[in-house]
Fold this sequence. Notes:
The complex is a heterodimer.
Chain A: E1 8-19, E2 34-45, E3 49-53, H1 60-67, E4 75-80, E5 83-84, H2 90-97, E6 100-103, H3 117-127, H4 132-145, H5 162-174, E7 180-184, H6 192-209, E8 212-217, H7 220-226, E9 229-234, E10 237-243, H8 244-249, H9 254-262, E11 265-268
Parallel strand pairs in A: 3-8, 3-9, 6-7, 7-8
Antiparallel strand pairs in A: 1-2, 1-4, 4-5, 9-10
Helix pairs in contact in A: 3-4, 5-6
Chain B: E1 12-23, E2 26-38, E3 43-47, H1 54-61, E4 70-78, E5 81-82, H2 88-94, E6 99-102, H3 106-109, H4 116-127, H5 132-145, H6 151-154, H7 164-176, E7 182-186, H8 194-211, E8 214-219, H9 222-228, E9 231-236, E10 239-245, H10 246-251, H11 256-263, E11 313-314, E12 321-322, H12 328-338, E13 340-343
Parallel strand pairs in B: 3-8, 3-9, 6-7, 7-8
Antiparallel strand pairs in B: 1-2, 1-4, 4-5, 9-10, 10-12, 11-12
Helix pairs in contact in B: 4-5, 4-7, 5-7, 7-8, 11-12
Amino acid sequence: MTLVDGAPLLEVEDLGKTFASRGVLPGWRARTPVEAVKGVSFSVRRGETLGIVGESGSGKSTTICCVARLEQPTSGRVVFAGRELTGMGMRELRRARRRMSMIFQDPYGSLNPRHDVERILGEPLELRGMDGAARRTRTRELLELVGLDPACVERRPDEFSGGQRQRIGIARSIALEPELILCDEPVSSLDVSVQAQILNLLAELQEQLGLTYVFVSHDLGVVRHMADRVIVMRRGEIVEQGAIDAVYDAPSHPYTRELLAAVPELVPVGSGHDG
Amino acid sequence: MTTTIDPVRPVLEVSDLHVAFATRRGWFEAVRGVDLALAAGETLALVGESGSGKSTLGLSLMGLLHPTRSRTSGSVRLEGRELVGAAPAELRALRGREIAMVFQNSMTALNPVHPVGRQVAEAMLLHQDVTRRQARARAVELLGEVGIADPAQRSRDYPHQLSGGMRQRVMIAIALVNEPKVLVADEPTTALDVTTQAQLLELIGDLQQRLGIAVLLVTHDLGVAARIAERVAVMYAGKIVERAPSEPLFRHPRHPYTWGLLGSIPGGGATRHRRLDAIPGSPPASAYPSGCPFHPRCAHAFDACATTVPELRPAVDPRHEDACLLAAEVKDRIGAERGMRVEQRGGTRPVESGAVGGERA
């Protein structure tokens, strides 16, 4: 179990995001705006993992993109470490965002294929103002933290397997010692055996570095394994939220029940779980 | 699911199948000596990680591999007819007629410029002596049978107008229009949301029971395999490493790779917040280790594993085979600790209705 103290690190209030698509060509009819996220509120305490589950199109990824302000929320407030991110100017936002980072789903698309590992990991450190020697030390330190050989700094992403790439992505996300990491389907594109390694790594890092996670996934099993609390989203709205066991063992919303019923669970023989 | 399996005359019989691909560094063998038999009405799940050769095996059964960039040897017999080395015209006559396939990615497998009804009808016109009008009518009927609401209307839609689940239903309709003996389903539900996935698995099961088709389900998802297959074969590095009826395979797994796969599954109530028993390293990608292909990642490997290639052999139960050099007692003992059972909560929701209207495209 992770250590959780009471102070919320992240507070999201009545978040909304509407994508208004313009017509492709002048004179073409614009499509009806899509309300991807509607009235979403939650808070995350320091050291805990909040899971967000939902099917495709439920707004779970848009929600965390709005939290990081990679998307501009249409309405609502995002307060991170006591400061309101919504409404901040770009310069101020960049400073505030140093204390949070993201891990993306696609370990192929999220690393620049033309940069070697040294540069991929060195870039955030350089932006922070670290000099060359310190950067090199830190880069190797980071690689060791995520279980990669520090000698691989000269290699490029295409020389690594999917799991190793995801480790590089994780190393980059912890480079600036963030407090909060937003994980967007971090293991969805990995094979089961490799997925388990990455989940173990994320759990170890959380314990070692006292990280707080918001963990988005369509995989109910993965979220159950990782999260302390969970939000279930559907069509842009939260249908249910609560402590992980409460939601999984006694779901109160019919949609949550339907989701859980759709996935047969493989459970160890002889475990007392659910009889 | 109970079906009568006639072990004497399997519909599909594969023996010592090898498939190699041409690479810049010579031939790379993706399937290395696979034997399997599939009886009418039976579902066999082929489970493995990427690179295990499971999809290649599926494609080779269909004769869909590149004629010069790949090399297939061994034997694939469909109701006694040899497919390996068969003339292209002969394969074309069988493919879609006697053996059909459902692919993972319906967006690329369907033709984007033809309405879906026409694509179903085309498959029928190719193989059966029917008129265009009859084929069209049958296509609409079949689209209804695979759970598409308002099939007459939907049959005029193009693939992009349908949701992923709907497109997958169309692919199933195309595969089943000629009532084949064998259906190869390669990750048919992987790209879909869980609730849609559940409905499709149910549909495949229903149709199979009704038509008595033998299904080879290729999947990386042990949960999916546990749910619909009568038998499961676990593949690793181009070989079957364990095979058994579904229940004993999950309850008393005998191969260390299967133990690793089961230990890697997150979310079982009892394993929450505990370290997962992940398998170290990753599957071989370009060259296979000597001896047992799994030995470099195996926690139980001993000296002989690096030199001796283990063969797939039955245990006490003749239907439960594994390819591992460990002593039977060790496999019994650890297997008993690692066993899993399937736990299902309630049923699934009724068939989804319509196309993109209600759902997100």
